[in-house]
Specification:
single chain, mainly alpha, about 80% helix, elongated
Length: about 150
């Protein structure tokens, strides 16, 4: 089929393979962020939903109306991912499909991916200004890809 041929040619592209590997790593990073939030919820016993408190809480823990500080911190990490990583998925795909060089894809995709992973490490550990630097590096990669697409 045509789709099979297209996929085969994409998988032969070094630029696309780099993008695909980085997408997989970022997908796992997003899952890690969700697990981190869940672990913070367990640790703080900060359940919002009554059914969660009933099933996962021990010793008569009840659901509260407000997230604990630890859970709210985890949720901010997840929200930051949700605000930034889909843009990479879209820009990176268009960048690669529009004929990015393997070297350009390597530098933009890997720099973005490493910056986002480090951003999460910095966020978890409350390390500023390093978190902001990692964020800015990721944004610079997205701007670079967008500029390459436009020009």
């Amino acid at each position: 089929s045509d789709l099979g041929g297209t996929m085969d040619s994409l998988l032969q592209s070094d630029a696309f393979r780099t993008y695909a590997i980085c997408c997989a790593i970022l997908g796992l990073k997003v899952l890690f962020s969700a697990f981190y939030t869940g672990a913070q919820r367990q640790k703080s016993r900060g359940y919002i939903n009554a059914e969660d408190a009933r099933v996962f809480g021990k010793g008569g823990v009840e659901a509260g109306a407000v997230e604990s500080a630890e859970v709210a911190h985890g949720l901010r990490i997840q929200r930051n991912d949700a605000e930034n990583i889909p843009t990479f998925y879209a820009l990176g795909l268009v960048y690669v499909l529009s004929g990015a060089s393997p070297m350009g894809a390597f530098w933009y995709c890997w720099t973005y991916t490493i910056a986002r992973v480090l951003h999460t490490v910095m966020y978890v550990n409350h390390w500023q200004p390093w978190r902001a630097i990692c964020f800015g590096l990721g944004v610079a990669c997205q701007i670079g890809m967008a500029a390459s697409i436009l020009f």
